């Protein structure tokens, strides 16, 4: 497998600016930013590392070019490892594909949902398959007005992977999720906004600035409070009221011991601007 150092700076761009905003850019515009296994695995590592990196306050995921955000997994290089076995064993047996999905697409989506920093997705064009799911897994989504989202799986004779059948009903409702997955129709940016798949639609030329503006606001916010809020909101989709209320109490308890909480209270009492540090 290609070393992560060979991926960052070529197929993936990773930059942390002076505000603590980490920009992760898919950088294969000539291949419609279809994601390779090496890109996928490197992205997982970067998202996991961002959680503990105090230099990072927020992550923005975007892509190079103006036409494609990510058109899914690059099928030209996406392969299922061959398992050892007898000489007459088939090259693919029951369990191989599912195992590959768990180790690949599902880990990628989980790394975004579980990142302890807020994640903004700036969608600059077509987001299909796992590309759409990268956006749906993010905490906030800003789309260029030429963006479109496509559930391509059934159109290819397969079922959704990368958490699509889990996330979509929670965003748009069960019946609409079935429509999107069964037909695989293009969902244009304005319709995606109406359905709640994205938070904002802007002209393509303004996408970077819009993402930077939101990222800047989040970078100045109390990072641990955002982390705990993200944890609460994500858990709420699968919890009952008593468990959710218990989670809420513990999250407030944990937040109250952060230095940012102490700064927030002090700034309020002293009637001055707050200066959150992220811990």
Automatic annotation (TrEMBL):
SUPFAM superfamilies: ClpP/crotonase. CDD domains: crotonase-like. InterPro entries: ClpP/crotonase-like_dom_sf (IPR029045), ECH/Chromodomain_protein (IPR051053), Enoyl-CoA_hydra/iso (IPR001753), Enoyl-CoA_hydra_C (IPR014748). Belongs to the enoyl-CoA hydratase/isomerase family. PANTHER family: ENOYL-COA HYDRATASE_ISOMERASE FAMILY PROTEIN (AFU_ORTHOLOGUE AFUA_1G01890), PTHR43684. This is Unannotated protein.
């Amino acid at each position: 497998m290609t070393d992560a150092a060979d991926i960052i700076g070529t197929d993936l761009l990773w930059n942390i600016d002076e505000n603590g905003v980490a920009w992760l850019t898919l950088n294969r515009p000539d291949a419609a930013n279809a994601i390779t296994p090496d890109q996928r695995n490197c992205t997982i590592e970067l998202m996991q590392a961002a959680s503990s990196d105090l230099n990072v306050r927020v992550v923005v995921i975007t892509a190079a070019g103006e036409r494609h955000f990510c058109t899914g997994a690059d099928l030209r290089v996406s392969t299922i490892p061959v398992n050892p076995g007898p000489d007459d064993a088939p090259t693919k047996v029951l369990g191989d594909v599912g195992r590959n999905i768990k180790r690949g697409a599902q880990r990628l989506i989980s790394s975004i949902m579980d990142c302890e920093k807020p994640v903004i997705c700036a969608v600059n064009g077509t987001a299909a398959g796992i590309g759409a799911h990268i956006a749906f897994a993010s905490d906030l989504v800003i789309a260029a007005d030429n963006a479109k989202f496509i559930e391509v799986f059934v159109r290819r004779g397969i079922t959704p992977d990368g958490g699509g059948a889990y996330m979509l009903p929670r965003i748009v409702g069960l019946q609409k999720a079935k429509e999107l997955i069964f037909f695989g129709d293009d969902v244009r940016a304005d319709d995606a906004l109406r359905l709640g798949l994205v938070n904002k639609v802007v002209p393509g030329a303004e996408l970077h600035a819009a993402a930077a503006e939101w990222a800047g606001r989040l970078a100045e916010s109390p990072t641990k409070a955002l982390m705990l809020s993200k944890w609460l909101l994500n858990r709420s989709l699968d919890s009952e009221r008593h468990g959710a209320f218990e989670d809420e109490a513990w999250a407030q308890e944990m937040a109250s011991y952060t230095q940012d909480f102490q700064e927030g209270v002090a700034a309020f009492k002293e009637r001055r601007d707050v200066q959150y540090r992220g811990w």
